[in-house]
Write a structure and sequence with these properties.
The chain is α/β, with parallel strands linked by helices and about 325 residues long. The protein has 11 helices and 13 strands. The chain has a 9-stranded parallel beta sheet.
């Protein structure tokens, strides 16, 4: 697999108003992040695509993405138009992030039907095919299990040609297989597993990341080398006290998993050896991330949950673009 330059992405978290959004976007751009990401949940303050346009107006270089759009919230023909418009108005800075949807409570509270995972994943693949078709030249038609498109000319056309890059992230084989077939960027994620599912290597282990990338490779076939691999870092801590820094992370991570109802809380040894945990001096952390790229081909790193954008600034300055 070709060695890709390292890049980093992050988001602003929950924001109270436009001023905070604009300040966050400018700060993330100034720190050297490649992407500024907005989540897509009914429970957070801003709709991601509209918020990203405000961020685009306030910045000039950072790419605009979503982590990730819920494909059940918008019809793909409407979504294609909104995304293409954002790409044009941001002068070609859109990176599409899309997923199958997972937060059951949002579906139940809004009255949106929550289909079983296999159906949502099947529908996601149709959505991505339609987005590609409407981003392309000429009228587009499609007939699938979930959607029918009859000769629609996508307009406007995205500024990026042949289209803005599309990212799909996930942790299961079905979803990562869709990503392997359809995505330009694949974000390999750990799954939250119940106690009954907690057999085999932990989700955070090197062995599990290798297995998941293998699923992507198998589904992608000859196009695998064209795919950029990404992952979310679990922790990056710059410290001279490696043991103390790790113990603080271990306690935080355990609380997070328990709050999410996970039956699988990795041991200290399992977390220490995870390719997504980097704790130590700046040199040690950078060596860890370079080794992760070398072993797995992962070059696009999302900041850990709950971290501040500035916490990665020295790492970004050292590694971004290498």
């Amino acid at each position: 697999m070709a060695v890709r330059p390292i890049r980093f992405g992050t988001g602003p978290g929950r924001l109270p108003d436009r001023t905070a959004l604009v300040e966050a976007a400018r700060n993330i751009e100034r720190l050297g992040y490649s992407t500024f990401a907005m989540a897509d949940h009914l429970t957070i303050p801003f709709a991601p695509l509209l918020a990203l346009q405000a961020a685009a107006d306030a910045t000039s270089t950072v790419r605009l993405t979503q982590t990730v759009l819920n494909q059940d919230f918008r019809h793909p023909a409407v979504l294609a138009k909104e995304l293409a418009t954002l790409d044009v108005l941001s002068q070609g800075r859109l990176q599409v992030g899309i997923g199958a949807g997972w937060m059951r409570d949002e579906y139940d509270r809004s009255g949106i039907t929550y289909d079983k995972a296999s159906v949502r994943i099947e529908r996601l693949e149709e959505v991505v095919v339609i987005l590609k078709g409407l981003f392309g030249d000429g009228p587009f038609s499609f007939s699938g299990e979930h959607f029918t498109i009859d000769g629609i000319e996508g307009t406007p056309k995205p500024l990026q040609r042949p289209r803005p890059p599309i990212m799909i992230g996930g942790g299961g084989r079905k979803l990562l297989s869709v990503a392997g077939r359809q995505a330009d960027i694949v974000q390999v994620m750990p799954r939250t597993r119940s106690a009954a599912q907690s057999s085999g290597p932990p989700e955070v282990s090197a062995q599990t990341y290798e297995e998941k990338i293998g699923w992507v490779r198998e589904a992608a076939g000859d196009r695998f080398d064209e795919i950029e691999l990404g992952a979310q870092l679990l922790d990056v801590t710059l410290t001279d006290d490696v043991d103390g820094g790790f113990e603080a992370f271990f306690q935080r991570f355990g609380r997070l998993l328990r709050a999410r109802g996970s039956g699988e809380v990795p041991s200290r040894e399992e977390l220490r050896s995870s390719p997504m945990v980097a704790i130590g001096s700046l040199d040690e952390v950078c060596e860890q991330l370079l080794a992760t790229r070398e072993r797995f081909g992962i070059s696009y790193f999302s900041a850990p949950l709950g971290s501040t954008p500035g916490s990665l600034a020295p790492v970004i300055e050292r590694l971004s673009g290498q």
